[in-house]
Structures are given as C-alpha cells and as structure tokens.
Amino acid sequence: MDSVRSPEWPVAPLGGVAANSAAARYGMSPGTGPIVGRASPPATAPPPYRPSSDAGSISPTGKPAAPPIPVKILVAGGFGVGKTTTVGAISEIAPLTTEAEMTTAGIGVDDPGARSTKTTTTVAMDFGCVTIDRSLKLYLFGTPGQTRFGFMWDDLARGALGALVVVDSARLDDCFPAIDFFERAGLPFVVGVNAFDGRLALELGEIRWALAIGDHVPLVQFDARDRLSVRDALLVVLDRALDRATRDRRA
Question: Judging by DSSP bridges, how do beta strands 162-168 and 189-194 pair with one another?
C-alpha cells in the first residue's frame, strides 16, 4: 500500500476543462463524441465476483461478549457525488465532517455539475461508524473529491479492507481517478451509482462498459440519502472484502 501513487489529477486553468474529466485525461474536445470510458479493464482480472453463501452468524455462548472487530472502509469518488451524504446517512454517531463554504475561487476548478445545489465542500475527510452486528463494526472514512487533496488518499487507504466508489451517472469521468487508484492499490472495491432524484442517467450495463470494470467488481445502484440503501451497498463492500480474504487464505 505504501508504494501506491495518489490519483494523478493535474490542476486545470481557471475556466478550463475539469482536471479529472474525460476531456483532460484523453485529449478530447469538450462536448464532442459519446461517453468515453476508461481504456480497458486490467489485463489479468480475478474470477467473477460471487456473493458468499457460507457466511454464518455467531451464536451466543454465554461468555462475555468480545468487542466487535473494527473494519475500515473508504467512501471515495469524484467531487460532489454524495460521499458526505453517504457517511452521514448511515453513521450511528454524529459524523465528523470538514465541510467549508464554496467560494468564487473554486469556479472552473470544483464543478459539482449543473444539477447540483451543493454549496459546501469537504476540505479534508468525513468520518462515521456503524455497528453491523456483535462481531463487526465499520469505520467509514470519506475521501475528499477535489483534485488538490488527492495526496491524502494514500494515508486514508492505509489499513482499509475495502472501498465504496460513489458515482454520479451523469458525470462518470469524475470517478476514473478513484477506480484507477484502487485498482493500483489492489484494494477490493464496489462501484455504487448514486441515484440522484431517484433515477440514473444511464443503465448499469452502460455504466460498467464506460468504467471498463470487470465482472469481479460489483456494480450497485443506491440512494446516498437513504440509510437502508447505504447499508445494503456497504454490505456488498464487506462481502467483497471477505471474499477476497477467503481467496487469499486458500491461495
């Protein structure tokens, strides 16, 4: 994990193309051509993801209950895709947020999209936690989405067992750096497409093609505002991490 490079997000000039957009990454002219996905999936992909069917629950034994095992999960993605909302919706404690008011200095640099009414932005990280059962407790770390805070991702990813990459289906190019980062890190991740206004701009199959992710990466739709929907998405992340750990142990 120490050798993984932070997302390569060059800073765009004021009023220019977003630094982490498809146009900037692939040399396209803004507003031309169909949706362009990432170049291709990894050359050697793991086996297709299959949810575990033998995960059992721990039965009471009468002995003093052991404290739950802490599991670190990252909530990552581009700017303004719903990471802070995701952490806040599920956290059983008052979430730690580092929100700051957006100013005119960010015009042309931080672009939340035309549909967004976002007025604040995360300037460091988000933190929350949720108890899954008596044996597991998830600690959620939300990464900053702005290009200038990409250097923090290495530290936030240290010790994490998995990640939820939050995606806005209308701005897929904003999540390319996050997917690239976790593929380089070898960290299990799930792509969660946030249903803004309860709908998606594209079908899930089209999104998988555009993101160039293999069948081993789960792709789910969820609502970052809904606690149960966020819970279901995080359970897929947890199951993916357990599946990876089981395969590594058998290898």
Answer: parallel
Specify if 13 maps to a domain. no
Give the count of domains, the chain: 1
Q: Could you tell me the CATH number of the domain that includes residue 78? A: 3.40.50.300
Cα-Cα-Cα-Cα dihedral sign, residues 219, 222, 227, 232: negative
The DSSP secondary structure of 158-172, one letter per residue, reads: TT--EEEEEEETT-G
Structural domain contains residue 168: yes
Q: Say what angle helices 83-90 and 227-250 make with each other, to 10 degrees.
A: 90
- pLDDT tens profile 139-193: 999 988 666 666 677 888 889 999 999 999 988 988 898 999 999 989 999 999 9
Question: What CA dihedral angle connects 165, 171, 175 and 180, to 10 degrees?
Answer: 130
